[in-house]
């Protein structure tokens, strides 16, 4: 505790003057949600252009093009066949011998750590992850399976309301407001709307995942693993799925993108089954929130396809919808919660007012930070100061500029530890709790000027933020008495 107080005093000495200088530069802080006199609701939407997250401070600017990644793209921007991702092709990317060794190491580590009662890997810890993943597992693969709560068709209760009429007929601005209000109630931490750019829809659903090396080799067609069902657009009234294809109506022109929070206090136990549990809960939230929002839209008289983590380039849609920026991890980083989110979306033919991308200084800050690259145990994250047009391998989607990642080494570490890691998420300076004014100051400085970025990264180190993955800290998690879902659900929103 004494060390923390010293660190914070040092922060005040270093940046206190900067905080006082901001108002003098015409860059004063936004008031808190509780005291702000800024317009809210429809008035705020008119003033800010229906921002992806009402209540953001002034330094989070709406822009016409994303700060990186999906504004400047090649003319022949390729659509993505998910058979090339590391879930499917780890065998090809590692080679036979390394793949077999990786899978054997993972099985050995899992059995050994569970048997010896290693903190973070005990049967209790693994059960936590399995429980958190329940809804995700029950709703099929992440490629748009038409089943259960992520069905592509209305339920009987929804059909009954549709039959009663009348069909919802509000203007796009009002419709966007109503859909976002519903999304918040159903569990979305952030939400935004963008047009459906077909370049970001996958060519196929997920290919089968085959773990056995010999069976995988036999499944190949022309040297490639088999693809999943093709995804096509047709001039039909309603979406549907058959054994041969996924069909999206031509009338589907809008995407509602949602971010679902994860517990930072839980993720900082990475790598462990405890940390993996908050990822599992996040994916389950993706399923039920997207499913409920799609059913809401269908009950209005329109059609909707709920999608959890797949079927399309969700990061691209999230960036274009203003949820955050593409960052060094080649993942989304939001202003409010950093990378500590999972994504889902709903495709629809309900006309909606679209949002703009944002510039919160995140991509610029990433140039000099590199904390995620330094902590990465598999060295999968780029140390280059500037992003590149050159992918690291076929697992990357080319055609845009990014800090491309070596995903096959990342996924190898997942397999060896039987976790989904998450250390890069945990150490990101943008994932820190924002209740303290000092964290707001850091984000304000990052959002208004790049002059302090290197110093801010050093202060993040000085504060001692980062991982809490020692055996003692893994065990201590069970006594933390965390709030619902492991985070303050009112953070960054009006207190009601």
What does it look like?
- This protein has one domain (52-486).
- Strands 2-6-10-7 form a four-stranded antiparallel beta sheet, sandwiched between helices. The protein has a three-stranded mixed beta sheet with strand order 3-5-4, with no helix packed on it.
- With 496 residues, the protein is an alpha+beta fold.
- The chain is built from 19 helices and eleven strands.
- Helix content is 41%, strand content 9%.
- A hairpin with a 4-residue loop joins β4 and β5.
- The radius of gyration is 23 Å and the shape is globular.
Mean pLDDT: 85
Number of domains as seen in the coordinates: 1
Task: Walk across the major sheet and give the strand order.
Answer: 2-6-10-7
Structural class: alpha+beta
Summarize it.
This protein is an alpha+beta fold and 496 residues long. The protein contains 19 helices and 11 strands.
Question: Which secondary structure elements does this structure contain, and how are they paired or packed?
Answer:
Layout: H1 2-24, H2 41-48, E1 61-62, H3 86-94, H4 96-116, H5 123-132, H6 134-138, H7 156-164, H8 172-186, E2 190-195, H9 213-219, E3 231-234, E4 240-241, E5 246-249, E6 254-261, H10 264-267, H11 273-299, E7 304-307, H12 314-320, E8 324-326, E9 332-334, E10 341-348, E11 358-359, H13 362-369, H14 371-375, H15 407-417, H16 423-427, H17 437-448, H18 453-462, H19 471-476
Parallel strand pairs: 3-5
Antiparallel strand pairs: 1-11, 2-6, 4-5, 6-10, 7-10, 8-9
Helix pairs in contact: 3-4, 3-15, 4-15, 5-11, 7-11, 8-11
């Amino acid at each position: 505790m004494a060390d923390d107080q010293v660190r914070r005093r040092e922060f005040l000495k270093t940046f206190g003057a900067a905080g006082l200088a901001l108002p003098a530069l015409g860059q004063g802080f936004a008031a808190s949600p509780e005291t702000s006199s800024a317009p809210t609701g429809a008035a705020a939407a008119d003033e800010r252009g229906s921002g992806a997250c009402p209540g953001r401070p002034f330094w989070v600017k709406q822009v016409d093009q994303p700060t990186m990644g999906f504004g400047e793209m090649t003319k022949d921007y390729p659509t993505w066949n998910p058979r090339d991702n590391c879930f499917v092709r780890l065998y090809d990317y590692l080679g036979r011998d390394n793949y077999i060794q990786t899978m054997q190491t993972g099985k050995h580590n899992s059995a050994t750590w569970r048997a010896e009662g290693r903190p973070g890997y005990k049967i209790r810890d693994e059960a936590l992850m399995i429980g958190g993943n329940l809804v995700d597992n029950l709703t099929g693969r992440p490629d748009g399976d038409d089943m259960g709560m992520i069905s592509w068709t209305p339920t009987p209760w929804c059909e009954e309301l549709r039959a009663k009429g009348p069909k919802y007929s509000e203007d796009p601005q009002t419709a966007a407001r109503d859909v976002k209000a519903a999304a918040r109630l159903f569990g979305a931490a952030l939400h935004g709307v963008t047009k459906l750019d077909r370049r970001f829809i996958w060519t196929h659903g997920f290919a089968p995942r085959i773990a056995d090396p010999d069976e995988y080799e036999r499944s190949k067609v022309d040297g490639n693993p088999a693809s999943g069902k093709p995804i096509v657009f047709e001039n039909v009234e309603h979406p549907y799925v058959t054994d041969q294809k996924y069909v999206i109506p031509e009338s589907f022109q809008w995407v509602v993108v949602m971010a679902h929070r994860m517990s930072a206090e839980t993720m900082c136990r990475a790598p462990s089954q405890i940390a993996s549990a908050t990822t599992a809960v996040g994916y389950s939230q993706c399923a039920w929130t997207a499913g409920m929002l799609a059913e809401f839209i269908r009950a209005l008289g329109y059609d909707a396809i709920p999608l959890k983590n797949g079927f399309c380039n969700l990061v691209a849609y999230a960036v274009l919808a203003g949820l955050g920026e593409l960052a060094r991890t080649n993942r989304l980083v939001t202003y409010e919660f950093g990378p500590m989110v999972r994504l889902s979306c709903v495709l629809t033919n309900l006309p909606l007012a679209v949002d703009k991308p944002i510039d919160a200084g995140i991509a610029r800050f990433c140039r000099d930070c590199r904390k995620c690259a330094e902590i990465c145990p598999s060295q999968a994250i780029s140390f280059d100061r500037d992003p590149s047009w050159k992918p690291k391998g076929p697992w990357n989607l080319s055609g845009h500029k990014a800090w491309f990642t070596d995903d096959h080494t990342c996924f190898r570490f997942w397999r060896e530890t039987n976790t989904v890691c998450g250390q890069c998420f945990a150490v990101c300076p943008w994932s820190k709790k924002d209740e303290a004014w000092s964290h707001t100051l850091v984000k304000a400085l990052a959002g208004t000027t790049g002059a302090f970025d290197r110093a801010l990264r050093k202060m993040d180190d000085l504060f001692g933020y980062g991982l809490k993955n020692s055996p003692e800290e893994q065990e201590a998690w069970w006594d933390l008495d965390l709030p619902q879902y492991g985070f303050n659900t009112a953070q960054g929103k009006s207190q009601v």
